[in-house]
Amino acid sequence: MEEINSIEVVPCTESDYLKPFTVHYNQNGTKKSWDFMRTHDSVSVLIFNTTSHCFILVKQFRPAVYMCEWEKSKVQPPTSAEKPEEGAATASESQEGQSATEGESGSQWPPASAGVTYELCAGLVDKPDLSLEEIARQEVLEECGYDVPASKLKKITSYRSGVGVTGAQQTMFYAEVSEDNHVAQSTGYFELQLISLENVNGELADGECCDGSRSPSDGRCTRDECDTYLKVCLKEYQMEVATTGQCTFGVGSTQVLGGNTFSFKSTKGKIEETGKILIPFDFSWLRTYTLIVEAWDWDNDTRNDDVELLIERNIHTGMINPGDQWQTIPHDGPVARLMYRIRVRCDENYYGNTCTKLCVPRDDKFGHYRCDPSGALVCLDGWMGPYCTKAICKQGCNVLHGGCSVPGECRCKFGWQGQFCDDCMIHPGCVHGMCNLPWECKCERNWGGLLCDKDLNYCGRHQPCINKGICMNTAPDEYHCACPPGYSGKNCQIAEHSCVSNPCANGGTCREAPDGFECLCPPGWEGQTCANNLDDCASSPCAQGGTCIDLEEGFECVCPPQWEGKTCQIDANECAGKPCVNSRSCKNLIGGYHCDCFRGWSGLKCDINIRGCRGQCQNGGTCKGGPRAYHCFCPPGFVGAHCEIQRNKCDSGPCQNGGQCHAALDSFVCECPTEFAGPLCEMPNWSPSDACDPNPCENDARCHSMDQDFYCACPEGYEGKACERLKESCITAPCEVIDSCTVAVSSNDSAGVQRISSNVCGPRGRCISHPAGNFTCVCDQGFSGLYCHENINDCISSPCENSGTCIDGINSFQCFCPDGWEGRLCDINVNECRHNPCKNGGSCVDLVNDFYCECADNWKGKTCHSRESQCDETTCSNGGTCYDQGDAFHCACLPEWGGNTCNTAKNSTCASSPCLNSGTCVGAGDTFTCICKEGWEGSTCEKNTDDCNPHPCYNSGICVDGVNWFRCECAPGFAGPDCRININECQSSPCAYGATCVDEINGFRCLCPNGRTGVRCQEFIGVGKTCHYAGLQFPHGSHWDEECNSCHCINGKVQCTKVLCGRRPCLLHSDQDQRPQSCPAGRECLKHSYMTCFSPPCHQWGVCSMAGPSPPQTNTKCQPNSDHLDNSCGRITLVFNRDKIPQGITVENICYELRYLPDTRNLAKDHELLLLCELSQSNQDAVEVALSFRPEDLPNHNLIHETASAIVGSLSKRHNSTVMLAVIEVKVETQVMPPSVDYMVPLLCVVFCLLCLLCVVVCVWWTRKRRKERERNAQSASDDSVNNQWEPLRRVVGSEQQLKESNKEAEQERKKLMGTSYRTCDDGEEETETEGELEEDCGGAEAGVQLVYKYSKTAVQSSGGVICTLHSSSSPLKAPHRTSSYSSKDNRWKNVSAVLTGQKDHRDHCV
After folding, report:
1. Could you tell me the CA-to-CA distances from 74 to 12, 110, 191, 973, 1300 in Å, in that order?
2. Which single residue of 70, 415, 943, 1037 has CA 20 to 30 Å from 166?
3. Residues contacting 578, CB < 8 A, separation 6+
4. Where is the chain membrane-spanning (predicted)?
């Protein structure tokens, strides 16, 4: 808002811009006078910004306009010539502090906006040494901030302005600018903040004191301190810095900041804003810079001229990226020590390493985008292009012949039509022609003339000659019949002996007549030869407006809804269907019904609200309310007060030659008389003779005789009615070739198309096209890679010396030198002695990034400035400690610093390699700067630049982002570098047998001739009966859609798929929303409360009313969010990305789209398919879909599994549905069927195992039998030599194996003596037993266990061992087995002490 105050009007006595004159002259003898002013000529510039697509005007305050507005207010301001009365005040005094600002209603002055104008950029021609173009250029730069070369200014015209007063000449120019030319506004600023300054001695750079003279005693400057302030010079990067010259980037300074020593760092570490300098820049930040920081003394009493004198100068070169991080730079100079920090920041809405990337979010006609953190434009959904101004049209929309202003539409240009604007319009009046370009009329075969209306094959098309006459074409639409003997006439219709050939058909009787013959036809037939079936509908048998359909054996009446019966004479009870909506009752009438409406309702069904407009108009009509009533504006195809009547396509009478028209969906069907055929009954029928005799087909094609026609089944490679010509490999002229190097765009020239570069090789390469859409890129010097996207690294040879950092450029490099080095390769040592820092006759010795002073005459210190000590506060830098060593000093540095004065950092900030992805690190102070390779960005080059933003791919192509390149992966059916080419699948002529091919997205559709069907019209179905469905006729072989199902007519029978469509979602109509309703004709959109909102708001959705009675409720166990699964039930879980879902989507919308998928309906041919959807209970971003077939007794789960796979496959395809494109995950659940079991295999396995077991048993039995026989033989031999008495057992010495072998027979004897529940064991040590017996410990016998001693020849005793046996007390001890030679006298103990080896008294009871 402008602020204008202190207004005062004074006379203009002298001006450099206006000079008034009066001219006297005679005009046609009349003496006249005229006042005029001489002014400067001027220039004006019409500026158009190609970035924002708008014209630029200048807004400024014009005093002349403001004063004209003041004059209208009738307020007289005081002038300087008029003295105010005593006590009065001048205008300026009386309005002191009062401004003519906007909104001051109480002020006597008009608001400031009254003087603000919007005008072209303009200026005076007041520089005689400059051309008009140069003056215009300066005005554009000064007023608008755009630097436009004078050569880019285009002169429009010159004219005289103000012809009544000035007559000055103004020259107008035109200029186009972009944001790249915008230099007037600051894009960023360089920021320097002083932290501290230490000038211990209070000296100047030349060694003098800032104020006063030195003290005679110690030579110090003690009279006063320096008045220190800073000057900053920022310029381009210089390898050898010059302290003089222009500061090209900018300058800055401070006020006096303090004395000799001061610091702006607080105890909390915060730095005050006092020592801050901002240097704005309005150019592309180069990242490299040279910074000269100087400390100056404001006044100096030691100088008479009171000039400003230098205290210290610091020269710093480096590289820095814009950002919020500070970079601290210390400087330890000969006189003073400085510490400051710097950073570069971009202005608001400017981004990037150069602060030139401008991004201001907007959503208007000049752009639809937002800005990401890096400043890149991110297009809003549905938009693309460099500035997101191009709407993404409907997928497949021809980019040359169609376009869109809003996303998702496809508007055709003049001369083009069709769903995708790829069908040209033929010339008006063209009858049998086609076109490749608009308004052409290229005749079909056998047609000629300007409008292709001349039949060049009248004989072949009409067959006019009868009675086997031979027809010959003589001229367009002319013919001659060569008649056989006995016939004459134009068409050989006159028979000289007419009845000889029995011309009467169907039992008719022939009778000679003067002009030939006549036939007496039997009942039901008529015509000259009794060949025509009598029209049973001629007598109009259908009453009450019914439509009569003639059949071969009678007729059929299609009755109006109010009537029924054979001839529509029975009154139907309309009240049975409850047609009345808001009524008390319904009364059936003859031919109709009457509704007794409630008050406030009217209409046939009582569905018209007399008081309101809501719900009055049907079929998508728009209701407009008036003062007395309302009026319905009907959409195309509907008429009536409420748009309730669908306009009949038969009203125009399209059927010719007496054909009867029947309305069918959005078209019509002609029922032709028998003597005519064709879509409009325009062709005479063939003669009753066989059309295939003789065979009219060529190239060995098979002929099929059809009703009144013939059809030739052409072999592969041939086409035409008679298969007479070779099939063309390409139907377009010329054949469409995919060229990856160029793309076709529309133009305004005569051709309408121009080809521009596809930019597939980027800005650094040249594309060379190859066959089959391939290409190669020839790269510019310095670049390589498939897309010329890689900058060849010129630093690979490490050309920079002395630890210099090499920065790769385009076919070049640049070295950034460490402190102390300079030159192109950092090979020149900076001479720190060039400014003679040593005082008092000291001699300077140059070091690397340092110097050393050899002092004379007992002077001390780093610069020979002290008499007292070698050390002071500034001797050692960076926290180093100075030690005075008499004639020298020594600095003890902190661990991270080195050098004579601790001025060299040991560890670089780049030592950890912080820059990623081959970025180059440049260390500076306590921070670093990363120079990223092309394709990477971020503070550490961690982010891959999104080359896919804004989206470059058309037709739902997926952009693959690489490093400094991108590639478009096209959706099926599209090709080209940016997927804008819709592949013409009809180019290869895939349709056979003369069918017409219609190109579609990723496919084609064949319009088959009569008698053929199939994808390529390869199946011959002949001629069949028409189908009657929903009161309409459909020809044999036709297909149509019935809501979510597909129907097919086969010889009079209708076959439809069986998907249960459910209630159709629709958009509720409102007075503000004029969009058409989405319900079919005759239905209205109703509110419904059962809808589940998935992406709010969803209040605008309703459901379409039912055409008839409501279908019965479907009861099924297969529900979403349930665990039920069987052979006819499955579940699919769709997980969505919420960010990609449009607003206002319900779960029912998603289910509706699934039901209408072509793959879904194709699998529901034999069983009804039901799809139910609900919001997932476990994931709010998911929708569960239940699939079930009816009846629910399928033998296996193959059908439900195939259906689920088909739906998942459809979702994986790219299509226009933005809802389904948001699906990111699909989960399928079907019943897992156990594998079928074959019982023969396990049965055979069991039998085999039993046989093996039997063999083992037999072997064991045989082995035991043989062993027993051997034992009996051995026992009988032992009984002869042993008297069964105890003998002392000697210790067996030998291997364990020999012991086992020798004791086998004794062990068998022990087993026969002991029962099965007995086990032998050793009292103290383990006993080894054969036959795998278990071991027990006798010493720990439990209660109820008896200790039994047993004779055993196989026992192996140890010293002091006891042989025992344990058995349970609950079972009696079995009696020992005795042989036949047993004697009680022998059954006693003998020499027990010898057996027990040393146990003298053993008193246990033994058996």
Report:
1. 21, 11, 53, 75, 145
2. 70
3. 586
4. 1239-1262
Mean pLDDT of 354-380: 85
Instruction: For residue 334, give both structure tokens.
Output: 């000969």
Could you list the beta-strand ranges (E) of 772-842. Answer: 775-779, 783-784, 790-791, 805-808, 813-816, 821-822, 828-829
Helix (H, G, I), strand (E, B) or coil at 613: coil
Mind listing the pLDDT tens digit for each residue in 66-81? 888 887 775 454 444 4
Answer for the pair 421, 401: CB distance below 8 angstroms, yes or no: yes
The whole-angstrom distance between residue 671's C-alpha and the CA centroid of its chain comes to 51
DSSP secondary structure letter of residue 401: T
Q: Contact at 8 Å (CB) between 1077 and 1067?
A: yes
With CA atoms as reference, report the closest residue to 1312 among 1376, 1407, 1386.
1376
Confidence of residue 502 (pLDDT cuts 50, 70, 90): confident
The reported pLDDT for the residue numbered 1133 is 92
**Spatial distance between the Cα atoms of 168 and 126, rounded to a whole number of angstroms:** 13
The backbone torsions φ and ψ at residue 282, rounded to the nearest 5 degrees and listed phi first, read -120, 35
Give me the sign of the Cα torsion angle 723, 725, 729, 732.
negative
* CA of residue 119 relative to chain centroid, distance: 43
Calpha distance 852→866 (Å, rounded): 15
Would you place residue 1278 in the very low, low, confident or very high pLDDT band (cuts 50, 70, 90)? very low
Two tokens, residue 284: 């592309």
Residue with tokens 């932290």: 195
> Could you read off the pLDDT of 904-938 as tens digits, one per residue?
777 677 878 888 888 888 877 677 888 888 888 88
- The two tokens of residue 1312 are 């026969």
The tokens describing 898, both together, are 């080195």
Top pLDDT among 1309 and 281 is at 281
Contact 711, 691 (CB under 8 A): no
In this prediction, residue 88 has a pLDDT band, given cuts at 50, 70 and 90, of: very low
- The tokens of 629 are what? 């009533």
The Cα 1094–Cα 1113 span in angstroms is: 25
Q: Distance of alpha carbon 572 from its chain centroid, rounded?
A: 57
Kindly write down the DSSP assignment for every residue of 1343-1398, as one continuous string. Answer: TTEEEE----SS----TT--EEEEEETTSPPPPPP--TT--TTT-S--SHHHHHTS
Alpha-carbon dihedral of residues 1375, 1377, 1378, 1384, nearest 10 degrees? Answer: -20
- Rounded CA-CA distance 226/237 in Å is 32
Residues 948, 962: Cα–Cα separation, whole Å: 9
Tokens of 1345: 């266990």
Cα gap 1314→1320, rounded to integer Å: 10
Structure tokens at 55: 């014209």
Contacts of 489 (CB under 8 A, 6+ apart): 481, 483
Helices H / strands E in the chain, number of each: 10, 106
In the 8-state DSSP scheme, what is residue 143? I
Separation CA 443–CA 454 (nearest Å) = 10
- What whole-number distance in Å separates Cα of residue 1271 and Cα of residue 1309? 9
* Measured CA distances, 689 to 487, 518, 526 (Å): 17, 19, 18
Q: Residue 808: pLDDT above 80? A: yes
Q: 3-class DSSP state for residue 1247?
A: helix
SS3 (DSSP) at 314: strand
By the 8 A CB rule, do 1305 and 1354 touch?
no
Residue 150, token pair as written in the block: 């004078």
Q: Compute the distance between CA of residue 374 and CA of residue 357 in angstroms, rounded to an integer.
A: 9
pLDDT at 387: 81
Q: What are 1099's two structure tokens? A: 């209040």
1352 close to 1310: Cβ distance less than 8 angstroms:
yes
Tell me the pLDDT tens digit for each residue of 647-669: 667 776 788 888 888 765 456 77
Question: Which tokens in the block code for residue 580?
Answer: 């009345």
Please state the rounded mean pLDDT for residues 1281-1299. Answer: 41
Tokens of 94: 């009386």
